[in-house]
Design brief:
Layout lengths: L2 H5 L24 E6 L2 E10 L4 H11 L6 E12 L1 H16 L3 E5 L3 H9 L8 E2 L20
Parallel strand pairs: 2-3, 3-4, 4-5
Antiparallel strand pairs: 1-2
Length: 149
Amino acid sequence: MTPDADDRASHPTEDLTPGLSRSEPPAANTHARTRRHGPFTVVEVAGEIDLATAALVTEHLDEATARPESDVLVDLRRVDFFDCSGLRVLCRAETRARCRGGRLRVVSDAPRIRRLLRGAGLLDRFALLPGIPGEEGIPGEEGIPGEDG
């Protein structure tokens, strides 16, 4: 199954009544936690993301992309390993965000993440940011290239 085919697969969180979503993000787990930073929903991912752990990230990304016009940053700076299961989760979440008028970007300055995205043909799909805009040493949103930059 391709990442785009999986984007169309039914998932339990998509069966919720429209307009009803959690008031709080999912509980943090060993591989993902969600927080707000200004206008962004930041999903911080850590450790090894593979077939066994991708679902722990999925629950956070599903919630982050459930609202219209969400601006989601997936922070991969603490990831030790990331395989095609993680790419599938990212592709699905990016499609969900875009279909709802939002966007999803990846935060990573690791060359291995850039190589992985390039090798999978996904580098153009994900805007790579060096850090969370507005955090110490990172330019604000106006200094970060977006979809047009």
